[in-house]
Design brief:
2 copies of one chain form a homodimer.
Chain A lengths: L1 H25 L6 H8 L3 H7 L3 H18 L9 H11 L4 H18 L2 H27 L8 H21 L6 H16 L3
Helix pairs in contact in A: 1-2, 2-3, 5-7, 5-9, 6-7, 7-8
Chain lengths: 196, 196
Amino acid sequence: MPRHKGDHDARRRDVSAAVWRVLAAHGFGGLTLRAVATEMGATTGLLTHYFPSKKDLVAHALTLLDERRAGRPDRPAPDGLGALRAMLLDILPSTPRAAADNRIWVGSWDAALADPDLAAGHAARYAGSRERIRQHVRTAQSLGELPPADPDDVAAAVQSFALGLIVQALFAPDEFPPERQTRLLDGYLATLAGDR
Amino acid sequence: MPRHKGDHDARRRDVSAAVWRVLAAHGFGGLTLRAVATEMGATTGLLTHYFPSKKDLVAHALTLLDERRAGRPDRPAPDGLGALRAMLLDILPSTPRAAADNRIWVGSWDAALADPDLAAGHAARYAGSRERIRQHVRTAQSLGELPPADPDDVAAAVQSFALGLIVQALFAPDEFPPERQTRLLDGYLATLAGDR
């Protein structure tokens, strides 16, 4: 029954768009079945057909973010330190869209820390991100761009720097315009490389 | 009427304790007047006498955290890099209490990013924290412990590192036990200083 399946998918896309609008306006704390239903002009009953609980809505919102990120083309970059820099520039909130995505990621931490399943999902996401950073670090070390040091620790440090810069830039966008974000990132990578 | 004032203060302390318990169990997303009233065995009506809206509750919870932090004695430390290290060790989630406090700070970001007044409060808190870091950085530079570099940028970078490490440690406490947090911090300060 392809037609019915298509309707279902189209309706899930409508729901997704409404979830985005609610998150942008009110954050995860304001993400309720009722708020999404109101945003769509639908009933809560219809919505629960697609998402039985608030937790399903939150999980769906996070899946959307994963898909958005995975769907973005990689910035062309050389291997090693250049690839690491490109990866981090893609994460930082230096465009309105990246700021909106990051605002939702940061906003999801409260709900995730209160729910073991969501927390495990986030822990896995950040472990995966550290693993990608670690691969770039190892390549950079093999190219002599970074000094030898435990790549796991370097990856954890790099991710710390990026996450904390995101949080500060979201709260103080005027103090952290895109060019300062880039300057701070380049300064950090230079200290890691030992050139200052 | 000192007696009446005392009753009021005692009741506010009861409310505060209930707010803590709700936050620890459910995060800011679960912080509702009804949840706090239930936790206290009181009516929502009584609670609204002290906190007319959810926003007042959130603001009160953040004030409690500020007071807890301000009430902690400073770790004795020399000036400069040692003082910076001591300040950061006090922030990191390396004890159960520090982890609980950080969990609440991180959880508050969702609500704060959805509300201009709360966001302004957080922006001011982080600006104040960067200013304290900057003073330590300037002292460390004057002592020759850190190379000359824009102290504002160094302070923003240090705060980035600390905030991001907090977030990762909250989601993956087993991968970021206290001794690894300390090692990562010391590694970061060493790269800043240029000794590796």
